[in-house]
Amino acid sequence: MVAEEIGQLANKSAAATREIEEIVQLIRQETADVVTAMRNGTNQVTKSNTTVTRAKENFEEIVKLINHNLQPIVSATTSHTEIAQNLFQLTQSLASFSQETLSIPRQVTASLADTISHTMQLKDSVEVFP
After folding, report:
1. Range of the domain at 59
2. Does residue 112 lie in a domain region?
3. How many domains does the chain have?
């Protein structure tokens, strides 16, 4: 009976050992899978960091180009504004000059009318003397 119990215990012990070996093997496999997943994750993070760094550099270059191209646009706009203001002032001066020029013939006409009137008066005065 003792031998039989020892045999049963030996069988149970062998079965438990096999079960432990299977569990250890599963743990090893799962650990290897986790390590592989971590390596893959690390590689993905590295690739993402590289992509983000490149995107940042590209955006910085875009900002530099915008700033570089913006200055001539601002200068051109300022220049166009100054030209428009100068043209406006020139147009106002021309309009004023035109008004003055238009008043000259009126003044000449009025002066001629006065001269004619004085000439007529002088003529009338001279005709009195034979």
Report:
1. 1-95
2. no
3. 1
Amino acid at 52: V
Q: What is the mean pLDDT of residues 16-35?
A: 94
Within-domain flag for 100: no
The verdict on residue 54 lying in a domain is yes
| Spatial distance between the Cα atoms of 10 and 17, rounded to a whole number of angstroms | 10
pLDDT tens digits, 61-119: 999 999 888 888 888 888 888 888 989 898 998 888 888 888 888 888 888 888 888 88
Q: How distant, in Å, are the alpha carbons of 27, 37, 43, 63, 108 from that of 57?
A: 44, 30, 21, 10, 76
- The secondary structure of residue 128, as a DSSP letter, is T
What angle (nearest 5°) sits at the alpha carbon of residue 67, between those of residues 64 and 70?
A: 145
**Is 36 part of a structural domain of the chain?**
yes
Secondary element (H or E) of residue 43 = helix 2-127
